[in-house]
Amino acid sequence: MSPRTSNGDLNDAMDELLNLEEKFYKEGYEEGLAVKAKDNFRQGKQYGLQVGLQRFLLLGEIEGYIDVIAAQNIDNTSLSKNIEIVRSLLRGLRFDNSDETVADFDSRVLKIKNKFRTILLVLNRKQNYGFKDSIIFDMLDKTSSSLGGTLKAYVEDGIGTDDVSFNGKQQDW
């Protein structure tokens, strides 16, 4: 070093060197936040798709069965009435994510399941309309659960990430 270098310049250079660690720490922290936000968005989207599949899979099966049953032209006023009730309940489903819509969805799904069970009871009593085997709602529910899988969520516990499975709770979401 030349004798002309002042102590101020030397102190500034040393401060800059000492602040490198803090500078890189802040840059790494900001980069980590950006990556985590992107990962959270992706995981949230995957979770939403999984929940959507699980919530609507059974309803799609029920609608398909209703269409097939209606095409059979079975002369039964109770059956026809219940089919129309299920169809109107299905048409009334909304697809936004507000608290009111979720509560309405849960209420409608319960009504749809109960009306569909009634339809199946009527059909199972009238086996001579071309249905070889009895259709039981539990069979449809199991099929839906096996196709849709179980609902999974990831919970941060402070130590690490735990995988939590909500088996049997698919219909509650």
3D structure, described in words:
By secondary structure, the chain is mainly alpha-helical. The chain has a domain at about 55-170. The protein is about 70% helix and about 5% strand. The chain contains five helices and two strands, in the order αααααββ. The chain has helices at about 5-20, 20-70, 75-90, 100-125, 135-150; strands at about 150-155, 160-165. The chain has a two-stranded antiparallel sheet. Helix 2 packs antiparallel against helix 3 (about 75-90), helix 2 (about 20-70) runs antiparallel to helix 5 (about 135-150) and helix 3 runs antiparallel to helix 4 (about 100-125). The chain starts with 6 loop residues before the first helix and ends in a 7-residue tail after the last strand. The model is unreliable at about 160-173 (pLDDT under 50). InterPro entries: LTO1_adapter.
Task: List its salient traits.
single chain; two-stranded antiparallel sheet; rod-shaped; 173 residues; mainly alpha; disordered C terminus
Oligomer: single chain
Spatial order of the strands forming the largest sheet: 1-2
How many strand elements? 2
Determine the mean pLDDT: 78
| Helix fraction by DSSP (H/I, runs of at least 4) | 55-70%
* N to C succession of SSEs: HHHHHEE
Low-confidence stretches: 160-173
The biggest sheet amounts to: 2 strands, antiparallel
* C-alpha Rg (nearest Å): 30 Å
Terminal CA distance reads 71 Å
Strand content: 5-15%
Indicate the structural class: mainly alpha
Number of helices: 5
- Shape designation: rod-shaped
